[in-house]
Amino acid sequence: MAVYTEISDEALRAFLADYDLGELLAFRGIAEGVENSNYALKTSEGGDFVLTLYEKRVDPAELPWFLGLMRHLASQGLSCPLPVAGRDGIALRELAGRPAAICTFLPGVWPRRVRQEHCAPLGAALAMLHAAGEGFRAERPNGLGPRAWAPLLERCREGGDAVQPGLVAELEGHLSGILREWPRGLPRGHIHADLFPDNVFFLEQERGTPRVSGLIDFYFACTDHLAYDIAICLNAWCFEPDLAFNITKARALLGAYQALRPLSGAELEALPVLCRGAAIRFLLTRLYDWTHTPPGALVTRKDPLEYLRRLRFHAAAKDVGAYGL
Amino acid sequence: MAVYTEISDEALRAFLADYDLGELLAFRGIAEGVENSNYALKTSEGGDFVLTLYEKRVDPAELPWFLGLMRHLASQGLSCPLPVAGRDGIALRELAGRPAAICTFLPGVWPRRVRQEHCAPLGAALAMLHAAGEGFRAERPNGLGPRAWAPLLERCREGGDAVQPGLVAELEGHLSGILREWPRGLPRGHIHADLFPDNVFFLEQERGTPRVSGLIDFYFACTDHLAYDIAICLNAWCFEPDLAFNITKARALLGAYQALRPLSGAELEALPVLCRGAAIRFLLTRLYDWTHTPPGALVTRKDPLEYLRRLRFHAAAKDVGAYGL
Does domain B116-323 have CATH number 3.40.190.290? Predict the structure, then answer.
């Protein structure tokens, strides 16, 4: 459920007066989104927008990079939120004491239940995202990449075994293997790094194939192995609710991706360890939140153990054949 | 923060297939609203709508009355959500195991901070609502009216004094006076009964007077003294954040209301006790929620003591002069 900053009418009106968007016609908090506060905005000139207030998890110094990347991706024809500048040409502004930006509204609905038909369009969209990112020169290191994992696990040491006895020791075992085998020299670029179903909008017709209408929420984007983004998607899209791996979905995702950007031999070989890394990354941040969130907080904690199941699956994968290739 | 029922894509698509609204273009949870789950919906035919799933606080048997009242009010020209019927002519349907209805979208923004300029348009809108309700024959008793207050207080007896020592005894004193003086024979009609600022949308221009663009959330509406609705609005709109009563706002509200429907002598005389009743009604439901909500629940509890301050103000009011008349 969304963090939710209250904005006074006066502050909102003063904020909008710096844009060429006309009069305010509607303004409603959006329930989706955990990291930031999002509001659906409708104005007399331009229609629908999304206003985002960046809450404390986002480092304000990094916002120009995120907004710059989104502007670059949109200029390359990718359907993603396009930051809207005020009259002075500046998109990153301040509202209610927080950094804030208005972006274009994207049509579409994120899939509450992933079907096989979503996975090929997703794979193609991911490859298009990776291609569209070329030419954006500034890099952003992955703050939740391999170097962050051991310190994260260390900070979960106290609470981790209460979640499941023996968990910390099992994770230490996995982690040392992952870090030892972590690949070097794979093709790099800008990755989304959080492309879960709620960040991918689809338009579907009654009996047609769903098509991707937009990608959102680039606030974990960074510069890293492109194939690591695929590994994140395999974790996020290809496990069923009972946590069984759906190899048909994986094959569809990988096939559509490779139709646009074929993976190198080194990338294919690295896929299992990249998947283990992606699983432990989400496991660790969830475990951290789980063990550090006071029970009464207005936040839905996500179960970290779902990712332990995924991690074990990847650890058992002999090679890329486990993913349908 | 909104209750939030997850709806699968298949269920949503099947639900929408029963309407003539075209393809689904957008679907997002709305953060506002406590009682029900609300979703902003955009479709290719007809544009914006609000989908409401009625959660457990609403009695399904009463929904036809609420939707019927909204349909009647809209037919009289009042700007309120108009239930949209499916192809079979039925507006009240089922989705995700809950009663559900799609209503038209209303433009406007509810005032996060009430200014004096909001109060005259509010008073006029309230009078128009009361006039528009005439001709809707079915009645709904006020389930949170005077008869409900003593039982509610009884159920708060255990936890009440923990909120503030002596609270239960003070409320018993107020309540017996209110019930003794409660008026009979005042003009009756359909009232909103929950017309707080978040249920009133305004459109404002840069330097113009705000105008009411719509009233929403009729799920407490009932048939009662019309002046009791005014008393609720005086409580909800005319106290400052420090809980000082703003007589200028009250005068604006009452003046604009009376320009459309002058209050009778009996109504004017009853206004202070109606205000005390409205204050104790919201105090008691908040106190009940406060003392019965587990600390870890995902619900924002509202401070009941804000209404004790209001109640004391009304109890000290000698006559309608205290409200600026």
Answer: no
